[in-house]
Write a structure and sequence with these properties.
alpha+beta, Alpha-D-Glucose-1,6-Bisphosphate, Chain A, domain 4, 7-stranded antiparallel beta sheet, Polyketide_cyclase/dehydratase, SRPBCC family protein
Length: 171
């Protein structure tokens, strides 16, 4: 499958250059129903109101809303060197789970995948579980680089989930 944006083709199959793929899960409980938390995360019009990592978050044309096969662009802030990550939704089940895979060639990642699961704990309480996996490039430096990237991603994911929780509980 190919996503096209800005008149250039970006291919789904970017094989990892690292022998290992790192995987982490970060979770948080939120005083809000799972469908509400899900909707806030995937509302790209409101994403920058709470997401502590991003300076740009948008659904790429021709689509307007996220869903399976839809491509998005997220651009980090200065703390992530304004990294551009174009992703494609591979799963999108409102209120339950959504997952994306990196489709552009990143200077840092040979591969990147993220899944956000939502679990209902009570009618107005839920758990958000952010699971990510990645491999860094170049392969020759991945052994040294990946533990650092993993630490930073984990820390930033925790911050993002806390920001999400605070935002959802305010609205």
């Amino acid at each position: 499958m190919v996503c096209e944006f800005a008149d250039r083709k970006v291919y789904e199959d970017l094989s990892p250059q690292s022998a290992t793929v790192r995987k982490q899960a970060v979770q948080i409980e939120i005083e809000a129903p799972a469908p509400l938390a899900f909707d806030v995360i995937h509302d790209y019009q409101r994403r920058l109101e709470w997401d502590s990592l991003l300076s740009v978050a948008k659904v790429l044309p021709p689509d307007e809303l996220p869903g399976v096969g839809v491509c998005t662009r997220c651009v980090g802030k200065w703390t992530s060197c304004w990294m551009v990550m174009d992703t494609r939704y591979v799963t999108f089940e409102r209120g339950r789970v959504a997952s994306v895979t990196l489709v552009n060639r990143s200077w840092l990642f040979a591969s990147f995948h993220a899944t956000i699961r939502h679990e209902t704990l009570a009618p107005s309480r839920s758990r958000v579980i952010y699971i990510y996996s990645f491999a860094c490039r170049p392969q020759t430096l991945a052994w040294a680089w990946e533990p650092i990237v993993d630490f930073l991603l984990n820390r930033e994911t925790q911050r993002r989930l806390h920001s999400l929780r605070d935002y959802v509980q305010r609205v």
